[in-house]
Amino acid sequence: MAFQRVKGTMDVYGHYARAKEKVSNVLKGMAELYHFSPFETPVLEPTALFERGSGETTDIVEKQMYTIFDKGGRSLTHPPEYTAGVARAIVENKLYATEDLPIKAYYEGPLFRYERPGLGRYRQFTQFGVECVGADSPWLDVETLLLAVESLYYLGFKKVKALVNSLGGKASRDAYREALRAYFEPHKDELCPDCQRRLATNPLRLLDCKVEHDHELAKGAPSIIDYLSEEDRQRFEQIVRYLDALGIDYAVDPGLVRGLDYYSGFVFEVKIEGKKDYGSVLGGGHYDDLLSEVGGPALPGVGFALGLERLLASYIDEGLDSDADPGLDVYLMPIGSAAFERSFGLLVETRLSGYSAEMPSKEGKLSSYFKKAERSGARYALIYGDEELEQGRAQLKDLARKEQSEIDLTRLAEELDARLGEGEGHHHAE
Ligand code: HAM
Questions:
Q1: Is it true that the peptide bond before 102 is cis, omega within 30 degrees of 0?
Q2: pLDDT tens sequence across 31-41
Q3: Are 283 and 260 within 8 A, CB to CB?
Q4: CA of 284 to the centre of ligand 1 (A)
Q5: Helix H segments across 202-320?
Q6: pLDDT tens, 377-392?
Q7: Model pTM greater than 0.90?
């Protein structure tokens, strides 16, 4: 009986897996530069966490959650996003009391949303994200976006565009909600059933309705910018001044409201302008009330999350993935049965020296060994026959330069260090 993967999921292997690993390492390295630390939360959370934290009236929570009931009858959900889980973990472990503030966390892991699969849209996907929790300053809002944008430039993307907006604090958002109600109310009968409901529960959600007619109507809706309090406006202006000073390529998009409920103040999304449009590669923003919503103290936070599959699609489109595979350091090529038998020892020794190494799984012709070495991207071949091995000698061949020299096998580690060590090798374990 043969099986197929679940719709909207993918298997990750080969070159794609290498590219994913590389991109992930770059993102983590950048987050470390900005003084973020690794953080992990489970892929099973109480369902109510997302209802409370991410927002009961969002599409993500209303329509897209993978909720299961375990054998004990508990309602658990595979996370559709990590921000709520990180907030829960900070509150539950009282990290706000024991750690220096702000807590700066980065995470990477699988997420689950029951969406219609399409270009850059999966039901299981991977996010890399950061959250900075427990301190409040416009600079921290900007730093978060700066990290996102700089990471994309560092990966090699040339055209990176940020869209920014401010949703203001609670008072500003309340005033804006009223303005939206007043705008949409006369058109209530034309709206889709979802939006008719949203008009009462959360009119902000009308702005990202995908139904054509509602979408058109939303274009004429009032803009949040006009409803920001003086304080909120000043803070947004300060942020925009930082963005200007840093030379970040951005545009203010008054229609950007984001699809989750916890945002207040600064919000943003980033697009990579490339061959194909996969939608936003990342999104994020500031939140004031999430921690208190999930039972903690009133601490603000800011963060973003990036979709790794979308990033990788652009990364490959732009040809940035060519050196993602580190290749093998040494491929062993025994000639003759005695040499083959003794290769296991050499293999272990080479790996212990910190160099990746492989040998053929069975005896064969030298020409077949060379093919295997080439396919595994090996830089060196170590070639030896029975007699040579007896004398403790072998040929070490640089496969790219086609240069070969005889070496003393008791000095194998030193010979490899000289050729592959310190900055030259790509696989040298410390
Ligand atoms: P989000 O905008 O819902 O934000 O998701 C962030 C990114 O995840 C998107 O820009 C996209 O690249 C990727 N993504 C979302 N859905 C899918 C999907 N179905 N398939 C593939 N990729 C997808 C959040 O999740 C917030 N937690 C971000 C945040 C962190 N805000 C503050 N801190």
A1: yes
A2: 999 999 999 99
A3: no
A4: 8
A5: 212-219, 230-246, 290-293, 308-317
A6: 999 999 999 999 999 9
A7: yes
